[in-house]
Amino acid sequence: MTGPATEVELIDRLRRGDQTAFTELVTAYQPRMxxxxxxxxxxxxxxxxxxQDTWLAVLRGLERFEGRSSLTTWLFAILVNRxxxxxxxxxxxxxxxxxxxxxxxxxFDATGxxxxxxxxxxxxxxxxLDAERLAVRARKHLDTxxxxxxxxxxxxxxxxxxxxxxxxxxxITEGNLRVLLHRGRxxxxxxxxxxxxxR
Amino acid sequence: xxxxxxxxxxxxxxxxxxxxxxxxxxxxxxxNRLERHLADCPxxxxxxxxxxxxxxxxxxxxxxxxxxxxxxxxxxxxxxxxAEESAGM
Lengths: 199, 89
Hints:
The complex is a heterodimer of chains A (199) and B (89).
Chain A: H1 4-15, H2 19-38, H3 44-60, H4 71-86, H5 128-142, H6 147-158, H7 163-170, H8 174-197
Chain B: H1 11-16, H2 18-22, H3 28-40, H4 42-60, H5 68-86
């Protein structure tokens, strides 16, 4: 599932009715698609439904896959469109709130200098065990982010889609994308900080 | 003194543009201002490293693995589609 050649071959096998190709495809993509769907809908059950519907739409639309976009982009586009029409989980979060601050108040003094500087933990966190613990914490914390922040982080930082793809899938401007990435990352950074410094 | 030099950044502002900096989205002049600030400010430098680590960690977060029940449900979806196909729908 790594290169375009493999993807095209997989799709060909699917078109020929090869069930093992389908098993390979869902084994590789279902976990990521479910995680992505959770960023759009109210709960796990709805997410599972949306992803199942997506697979059926994928199978029905096999003829339309031309290999121009990557398989991931194609699958995610179908998923996001279905998830969006199913219902955004907390629609109020879609609006960017101007008064929301990513960092807790009191970190900076009146001049804008640090009054409560970050504890130095980035080097410690390079340790392998810590890295695994942090990945778990980051994954859990993603689920608590406001919807719009979570969606951009999932698509951009977790799944590695390009900014253009993310903007088009979510129908947001570059300015929105930048703000949402900044806020979402700030929150996850703070969560990782409390994980590392708690010990 | 260079009268045209931009005023130095304060830490709060430096933090607010770090995400764009990491993504290479800051205009050159802004990026230079931030780099100058980072060279003198260990706290902001540490904050930047933490932000980079956060983004790297997000990229490594593995999703929950596919369960057997979920796979069975999906095989059913596949078979429904095959049935549709052979019925010429």
